[in-house]
Design a protein that fits this description.
Keywords: Cell membrane, Ion transport, Membrane, Transmembrane, Transmembrane helix, Transport
Protein name: Molybdate-anion transporter
Number of helices: 18
Order of helices and strands: HHHHHHHHHHHHHHHHHH
Subcellular location: Cell membrane
Distance between the termini: 53 Å
GO molecular function, one term: molybdate ion transmembrane transporter activity
Number of strands: 0
Structural class: mainly alpha
Oligomer: single chain
CATH topology: Growth Hormone, Chain: A
CATH architecture: Up-down Bundle
Largest sheet: none
Shape: globular
Number of domains: 1
Membrane topology: Multi-pass membrane protein
Strand content: under 5%
Amino acid sequence: MIMDIYTINLTGLLVLCGALFIAQHRGVPRGGEVEDKKGKDQKNDADLIKSKSKVKNKKKKKADKWPFLTVYALVMGADWLQGPFLYSLYTDEHALPHALVSALFTTGFLSGAVSGTFIGTLADRHGRRAACHSFCLACALSCVLTMVPSLPLLVAGRVLGGLSTSLLFSVFESWMVADVRARGEEVEEELASMFGAMSTVNSLVAIASGVGSEWLVAVTGTRRAPFAGSVVLLGIAFGGIWMLWAEYYGEASPSPDNKTSQTPPTSAQSILTILTDPAVLSLGLISTVFEGSMYLFVFFWAPALGSVHTSSSSSPLSFGVIFASFMASCLAASLAFNTLPTSKHATLLLLILFTSAVCFLLSAAPRSEQAAFWVFCLFEAAVGVYWPCMGCLKGRLIDDGMRARVYGMLRVPLNVFVVVALLAAGEGPEAYRGVFLVCSGLLFASCGALWVVNGRGAANVAG
């Protein structure tokens, strides 16, 4: 049996990921580690003993990563498993018109915008582990409601979906940063390592989810199957959080040992001070534009690729395999990130924004199906580097006591941006062209904004 072109593409990308993984584990030093190796050769016996002790501590820290990464893999798997088939479930099995599908997606992003104003405060006050439990429950219920062809239940499912997405991208990272800081030494290096590991795990899980969702649909004959699979993964993740994670609170909350209120009177002013800091403000604007463009890409890549595909082939697109290819590109980039210097995140972010702007510009008028596919893969590679890079910058600039609140607030303009874009996009197969052009222009503008703020050295953006 001859493999189709997308299976061949996925195979080649997986081979690239394997080569990068092997190269990374052959002892290639991360940026900044070469000097440390030279210094070790010149240490006396006492320093060598201390060095061995540090190695033991590092091994212990690496072992401590897995309670988080295991749960993180499960929750991201639950999220990715349903992703490739949400649009087609609405249109093909539920037989909803495009306008109604767009309205449902808009409802989800509106829900995310509203929930972003308060979920961080609740997480800091009542516990970040409890907030992660809330994500599992909300996301599972959203999946169940999405499988039912009833408009009120589908709307409720999207409302819960928006809430759970806001939780997923704020409280899990907040818990991880608090856990790393609670363990003490070499926080910056450990955070860079964790964000790189999260991006790698996320990409691996997404690849498996893309192939797995395609398999589930083929076996069961229904696009509801990936959503049922997500519910199972979320149940396992709920148990893992319960058994493996400690609880962490923000500075304006009761500690586990002292339940009395510790909320300072200037809490709102403190958040406002953080959000109006030029460095944090620039990162917030960049995350709004980049992540908003990413969500719009998720909504429009299928019709964009389909518009080119229909003119050249009669065979249907393999959405799961294509999605897995995108995630393989993301994985290859995140593996490359693990070898980069930890002091060049702002410069790297500038390159990510520029590359993404060019990708959207080219995607607005694709010349062929394969050209469009590889441009999309290049954008996903930029996404693979963006997440750990942005995570390191935010982890450096935002105080841990208010991290969940600030992260939640930063998602409000992001969701508003996506809602406005979806409402303005209009209908029809060519609607993606205007959206991609606008995204390209905003990403180019973000490059300029980061250049200006970084040039002024505001709040040490460059680290």
